[in-house]
Amino acid sequence: MSRLFLALGVGAYLASGATAALYAQNATYEDSALRLEGHLGDTRIVRGVQGTVLGRIGVFHGIDVTKVVSPSENATMEAMRFAHDYGPGTLVVALGIATLGAAVGVSQIHDVNRGITTGLTIASTGLIIYGGTRLESAYNALSRSIWWYNRDLKK
Amino acid sequence: MNSRFIRALMIGAFFVAATAGAQTGGRTAPSAGAPELGKSLPSAHATSVYDSTRRYDAQALRFESHWGSADIIRGASDSVVATVGWFRSFDIEKMVASSPRAVTEAHAFETNNFRGSLVTALGGATLTAGILVASNMSNNASSPVLIIAGAGAVAWGLQHVSLSYAALARAMWWYNRDLSR
Question: Which among A12, A22, A37 has the least Cβ separation from residue B13?
Answer without folding.
Answer: A12
